[in-house]
Amino acid sequence: MFFHAHPDDEALLTAGTMAMLAAEGHRVVLVTATAGERGLADMAPGEALGETRLKELYQSAAVLGCARVECLGYGDSGLSPKGGSAEERPDNAFMDADIEEAAKALAAILQEERADLLAIYDPAGGYGHPDHVQVHRVGRRAAEIAGTGIVLEATVNRDPLVRLLRLATRFYRFPPEFDVRTFESAYSPGEAITHRVNVRRYARRKRAAMSAHVSQASGGDSDRTLAVMLKVPGPLYRLVFGTEWYVRRDLPPGARLRHPFERWPE
């Protein structure tokens, strides 16, 4: 089972792994906490956007070979790094959800599916979105309740990312609100990563999953991250997006595993 905050998160971080496991014959289940109804798009935030993004989620899941898709029905906490003020957020914003209550809802699906593995986010929530941080908290607790044996935290090796961004600042002027230093505490350092999953064989499916999220390829005054990624040429795309990273906390930091179910020597 793969637990994400919003539709399109699955395509960015774990799509290759999901496609690989489905191709190997595993039953893959995708769960999102929200419908992403407060995301940035050319259409106004709200119920209509949420419905659109859920349709896109189902299209992405079909490409990846998912057997089941569920949404827990919490409200999208919005684009503000800290979710904005409580007055700006919906009453049922996921970042404000009772962790035990949300974890029980997720655990019920884990138990129903008899899931062997749950994929969530690292403690930083990747780049720090409050809904992503909540996915980590809720997912961890749900795995405890359900007795799920393997918990993988989807992440990115931030070491080469920070080096690349620092180099890019010499040649490219980023928007004023963009601060490379924020990535120094985002995602996970290379030494903490336990799984480096080669998903180059599934790059086309990963790209198709990204393409399914049409609403997230435009909106705002500048190029969206998803749109930029989809412009990367095929060979370079396989190189850049051909590895997916995970941290498994019950293994030694820096363990070098290449498959979610690979065993670490006792």
Automatic annotation (TrEMBL):
<keyword id="KW-0378">Hydrolase</keyword>
<keyword id="KW-0862">Zinc</keyword>
<dbReference type="InterPro" id="IPR024078">
    <property type="entry name" value="LmbE-like_dom_sf"/>
</dbReference>
<dbReference type="InterPro" id="IPR003737">
    <property type="entry name" value="GlcNAc_PI_deacetylase-related"/>
</dbReference>
<protein>
    <submittedName>
        <fullName>Mycothiol S-conjugate amidase</fullName>
        <ecNumber>3.5.1.115</ecNumber>
    </submittedName>
</protein>
<dbReference type="GO" id="GO:0016787">
    <property type="term" value="F:hydrolase activity"/>
</dbReference>
<dbReference type="Pfam" id="PF02585">
    <property type="entry name" value="PIG-L"/>
</dbReference>
